[in-house]
Design a protein that fits this description.
By secondary structure, the protein is α+β, with helices and mostly antiparallel strands. The protein contains 34 helices and 26 strands.
Length: about 950
């Protein structure tokens, strides 16, 4: 199985718990919504808001520790489970709430047998809002230490790896949560529940762990300092809130991170990590009676604490005039932003604010987008609104190229926001955004594992049922509601911007007091429960038996019909085109052509395409390069046919509008310019060009930043039209569909749509050659950047079909791939606290005899020497001494369990089936890989690592502000 880790994806950059209807309208035309994990963009822009723990692992002895002594907690574990049964409280749409009588723990059970996985999510009602003076960042720092173990579970990340779990923790304004998703069985569920009960009151929270983890968290803090837009957002937030803790970023102040006393952190833990301040969620496939019994046994013995939690009572006063903040630091793109106070998440106004936010930010229909991006005053607009327990805020930002006027953009930016009421929203605008919101909700409700995690955001507001209540409130929003809240909250006197204007007669925006939640929900019943799917066996043999392989014209199909929750269906559709001659020198044109496909057709505008997909409840992604176009679709069974019709129109009759090309080029140029001084962008570009020096005529060529900018600027509509006409057709298409659908209907529709669509030229794959290059070591200065990047890599001849592949893959897993339970992480992050994100991975081709081995780390520039020594010593140790049998045994378990989770996820399975079609491979390959991994000996794994990995062949690129003098951190108290 090939590694599917993207080149720029770093463990620790993704987290969980995004609000169910929370939306971040991102730069570069992206809009992230629902409760999926934020992209790597979240590591940069959202670090000031969200703080995500990337995982932890360290070898420890069970028992007494220096500094903190033995494990701490208010419960000795001697309490009896007798009499601590679960009492049912309420049930809505398949989710049932219980309360543990003995100690007040709230429990949510959400059974779903359609997936062979289970998710356990523990939510604690403590976030940065609960921190006192000197404690900023404490909730997040404690989240990190919760992965350092307890007497019964001393090696938490290693256990996650053994059980093949997807896991993480996250901290936000009103809550902290920890979750794990794993292949469901009685043993795994018992383990997960025992783990969460144990670390609730018996985590070590030791001084020795604080000493090493503090530097990791500080490294995470520094990574957010690299982004001017992130800091601008953080400064507006802190300026907007004079007294309330929503003005503090969750990551905290650097001084608090560095100097927090261990006894104060332990007191914070004892106070908040208790059953009466927690909600346990179990979602997925499990036996209800057995899980209730285990919960009563594991959590019932934890005594109810004697302390009484103090409710927060600070109320932010009404803002009485414009506030401003000016940021001056290194950067390549200008930015302007505005923040406005709004009510809390379950106030009657909130969902109208939510729709207002959509109308302003949506692309391409959003008013900010039309007034700024389409008129070329700004490159991107983005923003977000937060549903919080207490009155919160919404933020809007725009980025502007250096050569353009920030004042001109700012004037239009503010008039679009604060003159909204002069152009009231239309029924079409409001209904379009409601349709989009409800589509996203319906699709996400089909994933019990994601719901299990997303519930944390509603729990943090006061009640999990707000998940469904908010959905129903969206349906009630009218254009009059949107106009009213725009007039109420989009006022200059309620704004925080980059300037200050005295006002003789200031207006006020009174933020309403939150209503009584019991009154809000007293008559709420919820909607119809989503129909669950079948119990599906994700074994390669069953997948192979259930998959229908067929061909219609030039379309080869892998169809796997099955009953799914809510009738969900995932589809992968890839068109292959061109040959070495026709793609030569056309990389930029081909990339832009793919991005332009959904910007208009002969019959539909870009907006009409987007509206059609929203009405069809479809999430559609189109991506590719100069030789292929891939479309991924997630929808429901009765809408699949309509989605296919529109996709056929998009790929067969694109119109390539000139105005859309100009906007796309500007967005790409802004993205490139923004990376001009960023350590990560610089380092990764240089390393890629070093280990893969594709010639200039190759569409895979990796040019310099200036070369790429010049290439984009030179592209005209006629170039794209000609390239499409000369290359794209339907003679070679691969289609995979997984979910609830009719195979016969798909075959008939595909025949109708594509049987007569022929390619202008015969397709011939452009080989991806292996280049013999000399190892290099480059060091690049990036002034005024708090964080530095380290990338290293090598290539060598190896396909995933060769005998050495399984052995080298497991060796890579032990060395750097297992999520922060690997050789590199144990040394560099856990032991020495040098890096927030560190690891390595192997990516092997299934066609060309070529593999790539990559290493990475994010770190403070002053730690470069320590980092390089650690990488070198750990590599030398692995080559000289080899890995151990215990490491091999754990790696096998983790890798194989992870494979089960991958094959249980329909969108990933659709991708695997599509890839198999291209190389005429079946799931028999995966079955054999499992068998090969199980049979691996320690000698085979060590031999493979020594055969392919050498310090002499690895090229290294380091980027950071290495000349900056950094004062040593003050001693911890």
């Amino acid at each position: 199985m090939k590694s599917n880790v993207p080149f720029l994806s770093l463990p620790g950059s993704d987290g969980s718990g995004t609000r169910f209807f929370y939306k971040l309208h991102g730069p570069f035309g992206l809009s992230f919504s629902g409760f999926g994990r934020p992209l790597c963009f979240g590591l940069i822009f959202l670090l000031g808001l969200f703080s995500f723990c990337g995982g932890f692992a360290q070898s420890k002895k069970v028992g007494v520790r220096t500094g903190a002594g033995s494990a701490i907690g208010s419960g000795s574990g001697s309490g009896s489970a007798a009499g601590s049964g679960l009492v049912e409280v309420t049930s809505v749409e398949g989710i049932t709430e219980y309360r543990l009588v003995s100690n007040g723990l709230r429990v949510l059970l959400f059974p779903d047998d359609s997936k062979p996985t289970a998710t356990v999510n523990m939510t604690y009602l403590v976030g940065s809002r609960n921190e006192n003076y000197g404690e900023t960042g404490m909730a997040h720092l404690l989240e990190h230490l919760m992965f350092k173990g307890s007497p019964k579970h001393p090696h938490v990340p290693a256990e996650f790896s053994t059980y093949g779990a997807n896991w993480n923790g996250s901290t936000f304004l009103d809550r902290t949560n920890y979750f794990e998703t794993f292949p469901s069985n009685e043993k795994s569920i018992a383990w997960a529940l025992d783990l969460e009960a144990e670390r609730m009151v018996h985590s070590f929270i030791a001084k020795s762990d604080l000493n090493s983890e503090m530097t990791v968290v500080r490294n995470e803090f520094e990574s957010g300092e690299n982004s001017p837009t992130n800091i601008l957002s953080e400064r507006m937030q802190s300026t907007a809130f004079l007294w309330h803790n929503y003005g503090n970023s969750t990551i905290g102040a650097r001084s608090d991170i560095e100097q927090v006393p261990i006894n104060r952190l332990q007191g914070f833990y004892r106070n908040y990590y208790q059953p009466d301040n927690a909600v346990l969620t179990v979602a997925g496939k499990f036996d209800i009676a057995q899980v209730k019994k285990l919960i009563a046994l594991d959590f019932g013995k934890i005594p109810k604490p004697s302390r009484v939690l103090q409710e927060t009572y600070t109320t932010e006063p009404t803002q009485d005039g414009e506030r401003s903040v000016v940021l001056r630091r290194t950067g390549d793109v200008q930015a302007v932003g505005a923040l406005y106070h709004i009510p809390n998440g379950f106030h009657p106004d909130y969902e109208a604010v939510n729709i207002l936010n959509d109308i302003l930010l949506d692309e391409p229909s959003g008013r900010l987008y039309k007034n700024l991006v389409e008129k070329k005053l700004a490159s991107n607009v983005f923003g977000y609104s937060l549903a919080t327990k207490e009155p919160g805020f919404m933020v809007y930002l725009a980025t502007v190229l250096k050569e353009k006027s920030l004042d001109s953009a700012k004037a239009v930016f503010l008039s679009t926001l604060e003159d909204f009421i002069k152009t009231p929203p239309t029924t079409e605008e409001v209904e379009r955004m409601k349709t989009k919101e409800l589509k996203n909700i319906e699709i996400q409700l089909n994933s019990s594992d994601q719901i299990g995690i997303a519930l944390s955001e509603f729990i943090s507001q006061g009640d999990w049922r707000l998940l469904f209540w908010s959905r129903d409130e969206i349906k009630k929003v009218t254009k009059e509601d949107v106009l009213r809240v725009a007039g109420q909250y989009l006022k200059p006197s309620n704004r925080t911007l980059g300037e200050f204007y005295p006002t003789a007669k200031p207006e006020r925006s009174e933020i309403p007091t939150p209503p009584v939640l019991a009154d809000v929900l007293k008559d709420f019943k919820g909607g119809k429960r989503v129909v669950s799917g079948e119990t599906f066996d994700p074994s390669p043999s069953n997948i192979m038996a259930r998959t229908q392989i067929s061909k219609v014209g030039g379309v080869k199909m892998a169809l796997l019909p099955k009953k799914t929750r809510g009738g969900a269906v995932n589809m992968n559709f890839t068109i292959y085109f061109g040959n070495p001659a026709t793609t030569s020198g056309k990389g930029t044109i081909g990339n832009l052509m793919v991005s332009m496909l959904d910007k208009g057709t002969a019959n539909r505008t870009r907006q009409q395409i987007q509206d059609a997909f929203d009405k069809l409840k479809a999430q559609v992604q189109i991506f590719g390069n100069a030789a292929s176009i891939t479309v991924h679709v997630e929808t429901i069974h009765e809408k699949l046919s309509g989605v296919l019709d529109i996709l056929a129109e998009i790929v067969k009759a694109p119109s390539f509008p000139a105005d859309e090309l100009e906007k796309l080029k500007n967005q790409n140029l802004a993205g490139l310019e923004q990376g001009r001084s960023e350590p990560q962008a610089i380092a990764v570009r240089l390393l890629r060009s070093k280990i893969n020096p594709y010639p200039a005529e190759s569409y895979r060529h990796i040019g310099t930043l200036d070369e790429d900018i010049a290439a984009i600027k030179s592209v005209q509509v006629s170039d794209i039209q000609t390239y499409y006409k000369n290359n794209v057709g339907g003679s070679k298409i691969n289609l995979s569909v997984v979910g609830e659908f009719s195979a016969d209907s798909i075959k008939n529709q595909i025949s109708t749509l594509f049987s007569n669509w022929n390619s202008p030229v015969a397709y011939e794959r452009v080989p991806d050659p292996l280049y013999k290059v000399s190892a290099t070591n480059d060091k690049i200065l990036t002034p005024d950047k708090a964080n530095a990047m380290y990338f290293a890599g090598s290539t060598f001849p190896l396909k995933d079909t060769e005998p050495d592949y399984a052995a080298l893959k497991i060796a890579s897993y032990i060395f750097g791939e297992a999520q922060l339970s690997n050789r590199l992480a144990n040394r560099i992050r856990q032991k020495e606290g040098i890096s927030y994100g560190v690891g390595a991975f192997l990516n092997s081709s299934d066609i060309d005899p070529k593999s790539t081995f990559l290493e990475y780390a994010i770190y403070a520039p002053q730690n470069l020497e320590k980092l390089e020594i650690a990488f070198r010593e750990e590599t030398q140790k692995a080559l000289a001494d080899g890995f151990t049998q215990a490491e091999l045994d754990e790696a096998k378990k983790g890798f194989l369990n992870g494979l089960i989770v991958e094959l249980s996820t329909d969108n990933q399975l659709a991708g695997t089936l599509a890839g198999n079609l291209y190389i005429d491979r079946t799931m028999d390959f995966t079955q054999k890989l499992e068998e090969q991994v199980k049979a691996l000996s320690l000698e085979q794994v060590n031999a493979a690592f020594r055969k392919y990995i050498s310090l002499d062949n690895i090229s290294v690129v380091k980027a950071g502000d290495f000349d900056k003098k950094v004062a040593p951190a003050p001693p911890a108290k």
